[in-house]
Amino acid sequence: MPLFRHSYSNSRSHFYGEMPSGTRTTTETHVIPSSIIQQDEDKGQTSSLAAFKSNYEKLPHYLKSCLDYCYVVSNELFMDMDKGNVVRLLLAQGLIPEKPGEIMEDTAENIINELIGLEMLHELYLFDGLIIEVSEFYEKSCLLEVEEQDFVSKAADSPIHAYIIDFEEDLPPNFKSLLIRSLIIEFYSPRRWQTICGLQFLLVLKLMNLVEYLPDEVGDLVHLKYLYLRCSSKMKTLPRTIANLQKLQTLHLTNYSNLFQLPVEILNIKQLRHLLFIDMSTDVAIRIPRGIGTLANLHTCTGVYAGAGIASELSSLTQLRKLDVSKVSDDHAGELFASIIKLENLVSLSLTAEQPWWVTLLPELEPFSPPPHLQELILRGGLVEMPNWLPSVENLTILELYQSNLLEEPSSVLQYLPKLKHLKLWEAYKAKLIGKKFCDVGGFPQLETLIIASENLVEWTEIINGAFPSLRYLRFYNCGKLRFLPEGLQNISTIQELYVKVLHSDLARRLNGKENYKIKHISKFHWYLDEIDR
After folding, report:
1. Three-point CA angle 316, 319, 321, nearest 5°
2. What's the whole-model pTM score?
3. Per-residue pLDDT reduced to its tens digit, 150-200
4. CA-CA-CA-CA torsion for 151, 7, 148, 71, nearest 10 degrees?
5. Angstrom distance (rounded) from CA 507 to CA 245
6. Is omega for the bond preceding 445 within 30 degrees of 0, making it cis?
7. CA 527, CA 505: separation in Å to the nearest integer?
8. Which one, of 503, 495, 498, lies nearest residue 524 by Cα?
9. Is the Cβ–Cβ distance between 223 and 202 less than 8 Å?
10. Alpha-carbon torsion angle 205, 207, 213, 218, nearest 10
11. What is the distance between the alpha carbons of residues 495 and 474, in angstroms, rounded to a whole number?
């Protein structure tokens, strides 16, 4: 420790490595110019910086290694730093010690939580879920910038993590001889596949620009544990040689087309733990081959279509923790729900109605009974009324409802969920007005984040004193008609951030004038003015 970093092509691409043992410690290394240190002193940050550095040096090696790698990927890939992805990347790098009787993903999450408790990592619930950030003091305390000559000598025998903007231009002369363990590429040419597939020590490969095909030679990356591809619409499947990747733990595909199908050879990779298929429009589902139930180690399965007999096979995936099914229809809903009930280890469930899901009803949910340990539930599609079993899901911490078209205010049920921490209501309830009954005294006892998106919402009239006792983040999206924030907002002392995606000019004038008292205690207020009303 610490990490060293070298930058190529005007700092566009970065190469990170671990300092060889016996080299200078972080206390002997200054990576920040004195002018910046002076700025920190002027801001009163010197003591915080010193405390962070001291705490970092006291960490056991496995915690340092995990924090260092979190910095590498978060520094380049903030939008992909959801908690689950951090866990999978740490596993792929072999940074999580195996403990008898413990699931590795749980061990990794405990490590992340430990670093959060030490304030070296921070956890935020943003638009796409839980996001991990590295402390702002990390780079100033722990990172050593090296010149090219030092990089060549230090990188000779060190595992290297490379973030490359342009794979045509940003390569060091000794690239092929480096021990590249992580390779993240923004832009590449297909003629570079030979170079990529020649990296025999590669554990993580992430291609950010559109991939039209994978060559058969990708099967030569026999140590690969994590593969992320942003697929072109021209890409219809993966090569059969994918079966050679016997150590692959995570396969993550995005932006695929409706024509994409996984090859049956994927079933030969028995170490697969995470299959993630995510399309940004959420109206595309991947076709997985029959026999998926043989992947006994699978912990994550997202973005899949459960028709054609797949629904009944899911019950065999007894280790499954996270399941996301798209295009759920009456044709297979009964089999799907029967399978889900048997998944006793399931903690996260997402169901999306048939395309177009934003105007389609989900199948009847009343016959459904959720697994006992469910912590996260995401429902996309019409509900009309809340499922009668929802109040009994006592372990629920995250709930997201999209286009639910509810006829009654959902909070009448939801505010009594004892562990609910994050609630997203995306066009879930079509009312123009939210009243004080939205939350009673002591309602939503653990809720930290409330996200509301509603094109119809005009006014939130009042929040009763004693409601939302734990609320920290209040966010409004697509609420262009919202003209009144609630009386009583000023009484929520825990609130730290207010975000209004589209701030109506009338509301802006009130908050800048006579109603400023409602928000002046909130340290962060972000907004965008409605272009029409300016």
Report:
1. 115
2. 0.88
3. 888 888 888 999 998 888 777 887 888 899 999 999 887 888 899 999 999
4. -20
5. 56
6. no
7. 11
8. 498
9. yes
10. -10
11. 8
